[in-house]
């Protein structure tokens, strides 16, 4: 059965439909999982809250350990990579990765960037060989995984062709490293107008939730047909 990896990255601890000042991105990611469970109740759900419990940032020791061949690592190196190993194992186990990631200052939260830095791992999620013909890097994550990016934005107009498209570094900042390690099938939805807190925000939330239901229906239909 498929495994869903559910990740939240918001600094806000609650969902906006349950808690005052709660997170819209947490609300959307929870709606996705709820809709998935309604259709496929026996699938495995893994949950990781990097917004409240962020991974440790990459350090010089981490880099030294990651680029040391596994059979040559000292105990301190294995310890330095232990959290990263757990995060990579979760990612490799998942068939669908759904991420609730708000826009902070035009990009992803620092907590989620730390997550990305921990899962983009030489020898585990991408390969590197200076002597390889052509491109020295290659993805190592098995093909077929689906990435769902559910975001929230204070302003509006960040989608392709709109006024702030060039200022949006959230979806590109997630798609690029995930594609680098081999996860190229991506779906994204976002809520806008958070800072306006008026009827436009409510309409954006309603539209996003309808789109989530439709996306889950498409993805689960593919699973049932496989």
Task: Tell me the span between the first and last alpha carbons.
Answer: 11 Å
Structural class: alpha/beta
The CATH class, by name, is Alpha Beta
Return the domain count. Answer: 1
Q: List the helices and strands in order.
A: EHEHHHEHEEEHEH
Which radius of gyration do the C-alpha atoms yield? 18 Å
Percent in strands: 15-25%
CATH topology: Rossmann fold
Mean pLDDT: 96
Low-pLDDT runs? none
Strand order of the largest sheet: 2-1-3-6-7
Q: How would you sum up this structure, described in words?
A:
This protein has helices spanning 24-39, 60-66, 75-80, 82-93, 110-119, 171-181, 199-225, and strands at residues 3-8, 44-49, 96-100, 126-128, 137-139, 146-152, 185-191. The chain is α/β, with parallel strands linked by helices and 226 residues long. It has one domain: Flavodoxin domain (Rossmann fold, 3-Layer(aba) Sandwich). The strands form 2 sheets. It has a 5-stranded parallel β-sheet, with helices on both faces. Strands 4-5 form a two-stranded antiparallel sheet. α1 runs parallel beside α7 (199-225). The longest helix is centred in the C-terminal third of the chain and has 27 residues, at 199-225. The radius of gyration is 18 Å and the shape is globular. The chain starts with a strand and ends with a helix. The model has no long low-confidence stretch (mean pLDDT 96). It catalyses: N,N-dimethyl-1,4-phenylenediamine + anthranilate + 2 NAD(+) = 2-(4-dimethylaminophenyl)diazenylbenzoate + 2 NADH + 2 H(+); 2 a quinone + NADH + H(+) = 2 a 1,4-benzosemiquinone + NAD(+). GO terms for molecular function: electron transfer activity; FMN binding; oxidoreductase activity, acting on NAD(P)H as acceptor; oxidoreductase activity, acting on NAD(P)H, quinone or similar compound as acceptor. Quinone reductase that provides resistance to thiol-specific stress caused by electrophilic quinones. Also exhibits azoreductase activity. Catalyzes the reductive cleavage of the azo bond in aromatic azo compounds to the corresponding amines. This is FMN dependent NADH:quinone oxidoreductase. Its EC number is 1.6.5.-, 1.7.1.17.
């Amino acid at each position: 059965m498929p495994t869903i990896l559910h990740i939240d990255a918001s600094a806000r601890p609650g969902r906006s439909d349950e808690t005052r000042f709660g997170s819209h991105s947490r609300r959307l990611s929870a709606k996705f999982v709820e809709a998935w469970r309604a259709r496929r109740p026996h699938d495995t759900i893994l949950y990781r809250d990097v917004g409240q419990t962020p991974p440790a940032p990459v350090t010089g020791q981490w880099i030294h350990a990651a680029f040391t061949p596994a059979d040559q690592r000292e105990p301190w190196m294995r310890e330095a990579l232990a959290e990263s190993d757990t995060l990579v194992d979760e990612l490799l186990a998942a068939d669908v990765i759904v991420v609730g990631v708000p826009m902070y200052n035009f990009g992803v939260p620092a907590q989620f960037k730390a997550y990305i830095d921990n899962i983009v791992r030489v020898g585990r999620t991408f390969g590197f060989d200076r002597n390889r013909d052509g491109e020295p890097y290659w993805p190592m994550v098995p093909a077929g995984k689906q990435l769902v990016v559910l975001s929230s934005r204070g302003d509006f107009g960040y989608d392709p062709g709109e006024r702030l498209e060039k200022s949006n570094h959230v979806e590109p900042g997630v798609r690029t490293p995930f594609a680098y390690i081999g996860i190229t099938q991506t779906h994204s939805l976002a809520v806008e107008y958070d800072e306006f807190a008026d009827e436009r925000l409510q309409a954006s939330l309603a539209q996003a939730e309808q789109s989530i239901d439709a996306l889950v229906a498409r993805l689960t239909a593919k699973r049932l047909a496989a």
